[in-house]
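Researcher: Go.
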Amino acid sequence: MKAPRTFTGRHMTMILVAFFGVVITVNMVMARAAVGTFGGTVVDNSYVASQNYNDWLAQGRAQRALGWDAALSRDAAGHLLVTLTASGQPMAEGSAVNATARPPLGRAETKNVRFTALGEGRYRSVDPLAAGRQDVKLTVVRGPDSALFDGEVQ
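Model: Structure:
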């Protein structure tokens, strides 16, 4: 029978080097992924943005008072579909609908989306959206009233 091997300083050094090598490698990979997928700041100057906060709240209250709502989806061809309702009923024709779409992560460009009316408060984008999840910022203007909607489509 062989005698058991003794645990030496060399073994301990190899364990410590392997352990810290894995930790450092994982940290470097995660840091690179974080920096590579961060698309920028939400606002360039938070102090200036805070000065507009009460105006944004007032706009939100005015929008809720309109009773408008928007539902976003995609059709089989990848076109963005928007269904607009006013107080639960399909919105009448005559609204101007515009949107921007961009993937939620990364530095992909924001795409302006144009729509054609389908009737009964429904609109379809002229061009299909890129594949994958998209963050959509929708603007609806009808006469003097306007509303902003944020949504996401798969």
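Model: The chain has a mean pLDDT of 87.
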